[in-house]
Write a structure and sequence with these properties.
Blueprint lengths: L6 H10 L4 H10 L3 H7 L3 H11 L3 H12 L5 E5 L5 H9 L4 E6 L5 H6 L5 E5 L14 E6 L7 H12 E9 L10 H14 L1
Parallel strand pairs: 1-2, 1-4, 2-3, 4-5
Pfam families: Methyltransf_24
Organism: marine sediment metagenome
Protein name: Methyltransferase domain-containing protein
Length: 197
């Protein structure tokens, strides 16, 4: 699981969306997270020293990119709240959107503090029950950071597939060859379901 992106890859991502590095980092400053902007200006070889320890991962950059690219964002779904840091950042980057965050656990005080924002709605549930929850039909952004194993991760991705607004962003963490994720099982499971539709 490598959360660190090479500088060349970041340049490609910015270019793909017609953005500059300064625009993306500026979103963190506007969201009141200057610490994130400072982190991403460090030389890339220092990211691994500071990244995981401070909870700063590549997907935060994708959240900032999405906040610059997507228009009229009303609904965002986060599958897997953990400590609520991502939900808090999404609420700051998308102040006009409602962030629906689903997790089966409520953890420590940090979690409670992070989800206090008025545009965050926490739903205590296992993601297995997503189809039966009272959620909007479509989301402009879906962030999956829940279960890492097949078939749960496949179910989360398939739910997202059916509920992502056209042109929206689907961002998935921790997906890659590692001992934590059953990549082959997930891809094969999704392929079978998609072919059936």
């Amino acid at each position: 699981m490598n959360e660190i992106i090479k500088l060349e890859e970041l340049k490609e991502v910015y270019t793909m969306f017609g953005l500059t590095r300064d625009q993306v980092l500026g979103k963190f400053q506007l969201a009141g997270r200057e610490d994130y902007a400072r982190f991403y200006t460090l030389p890339i070889d220092q990211h691994s020293k500071y990244g995981g320890k401070n909870g700063l991962y590549c997907y935060y950059l994708y959240f900032a990119i999405a906040s610059l690219v997507l228009k009229n964002v009303k609904n965002i779904l986060e599958i897997g709240t953990n400590k609520g840091k991502s939900a808090n950042l999404l609420a700051r980057l998308f102040p006009g959107a409602t962030i629906y965050t689903v997790d089966k656990n409520e953890v420590e005080d940090e979690f409670k503090e992070n989800i206090k924002k008025p545009n965050i709605k926490f739903i205590k549930s296992d993601s297995f029950f997503l189809p039966s929850l009272d959620l909007p039909k479509l989301f402009e952004l879906i962030w999956i950071d829940g279960a890492l194993f097949y078939p749960q991760v496949k179910n989360d991705i398939m739910f997202a597939y059916d509920h992502l607004r056209r042109g929206g962003f689907l961002i998935k963490s921790c997906f890659g060859p590692s001992r934590y994720t059953d990549v082959g099982g997930t891809i094969n499971g999704m392929r079978n379901v998609i072919e059936e539709k």
